[in-house]
Amino acid sequence: MLSHSLIFNLFLVLFTALSIGFDLSQRRIPNWLNVIGISGGLLLAAAKGAPDLFGSVLGLSAGMAIFFIPFAFGWLGAGDVKLFGAIGAILGLGWIPRLFFYTALLGGVSALISLAFAEAVRRQLFKGTLTIPYGVAIGLGALTAFYLDPRGTWAGF
Predict the structure, then answer these.
(1) Where in the chain are the domains?
(2) Which of the listed residues 11, 37, 113, 114 has the most CB atoms within 10 Å of its CB?
(3) What are the residues whose beta carbons fall under 8 Å from the beta carbon of 5, sequence distance 6 or more?
(4) What is the pLDDT of residue 124?
(5) What is the predicted pLDDT for the residue at 125?
């Protein structure tokens, strides 16, 4: 039988990989995928008990709340807000500061790389239509926080 830890890790990697893939190829993250992420995160937490479920619900709420203001200003898409909330539901409230740190860091790096190397991106910038697939930064930020800095040593959290 598969352990909870193995199921959790498979779910996290598969969900983030699909989210990144959709954001790169379609520049959107489908609602059905975010619903699966949120539901899966809550179910995995519920399987561990009420305290983990409570942390998962708070992670979902905090994740979506953090990105609501940038969404309201048109800086992020609704799929990005729901994706950050879904990853908050999967990882729990305690991971939100580290997740935000790595998401912002990787989002900035991807924006700089896009500006430096893509002529089409430079043309879009001057037309006012520059968009960066921020779901990629969110997904990679989650994987970086969880697998490369699980204790928060680098991020300071």
Answers:
(1) 4-148
(2) 37
(3) none
(4) 60
(5) 58
